[in-house]
Amino acid sequence: MFPLFLVVILCVVGHCTASERYFNALHFGTSNSDYVSFNPDMSAFQESLSVCAWIKRIYTSSSYPTVLNYYHRSYNGEVLITANGHYTYVLSDSDLDNYKSRFTTPTGRWFHLCVTWAKSTTTSKLYLDGVLVGTGSTTSRSLYTGGGLCLGRLHPSWSSSSNYVFGGEVFNLNMFSEVLSDSEIKKAAQEGLCSRSLQDLESRVLKWEYILSRSKSGFVVETETGCGAFLDMQQNLTSLLNETTIRLEKELEVVSETLNDTEHSLNSTQKELQKTEDLLETCSETLADTKSTLSAARKFENVSRWDVLLTEPYFNQVFTEELYEQLTSSWTILEKYVGVNMTEKIVDHFRLHHAGLECDAFDQLSPAMLKQFLGVELTQGIIDHFLDHLSETACNRTTES
Predict the structure, then answer these.
(1) Nearest Cα to 179, choosing from 89, 49, 44, 79?
(2) Whole-prediction pTM value?
(3) Are the beta carbons of 223 and 169 closer than 8 angstroms?
(4) DSSP β-bridge partners for residue 115
(5) pLDDT reading at 396 higher than 90
């Protein structure tokens, strides 16, 4: 209670700043002496107007708790707004009075009220908590100017009856020089007591902060609504949200860069992996070739000079003079190849032309025979071997003997 009491006292003595006072409500006492009265310039409202405010009814002994009365000597009630709907009208229109049963907000609770009027349509409208509850027909004249505005009771120049004492609280009462739309009024009501959705409209001519600065009669004090702290918190949260958004955007940028670097590194790794796979495939092929060569080599790793006797011409055969001559003839031929690299081509030559004791088809150097020696170093021994078979074959020598 102490902070609220302090705020009230400071505002009463005029120590509140304009921005701080904007969030204050006016609390009215329960006598005819408790009101705010001043004479604003009403020329902006001659053709159309909207009056919107948050109202809290506290005092219930008054029959017509008057929130606002615009008085003119030519017609006392140019504009009259009450907290229970009785005698609420613009330009003597009595139609809006028919909707007083719609004022059902419990005592002690805030509700939002708007009244609009336009000369061009001769229509007035009543909104409660953002909802259009009734319309009325007015005269086609303009609003009189030069009158006085009173909050908290009927204007003193009109009546001093206690039946019109308000005895409640009003907050954020503004007058606009246009007819506000249904959506604008609905939004202001739905956003709640601290809504500022209508504050920046150019048509907001008579402003709440100006009303707060007017002189007050009797017991009329400013009281805190909590909207200042709420909007400060909202502003702080917005600032924090903006800072967090900026920080997250920066962090996201860093993460994005890291992701790009990782993606680049992954692409490089994939290329290296492909190279490794290609190399592995090559190594696999080479290994297969090596295994094949090794397998072929292993066939001869335990071969001795006597293993020739295990071959078909000799194995399980009687070793005759003829077989002996065949072996010694082979050794005689091999004598010519001393110092020659014993390749498959030379072995194939032996198999084709020196397979047995029968006469060799070796009377001349045929192209087929020479082709077997492609890649073989033609030593003197090989050439002598050729010459022996061309001049006088082994077959001829055997016949003569």
Answers:
(1) 49
(2) 0.59
(3) yes
(4) 51, 126
(5) no
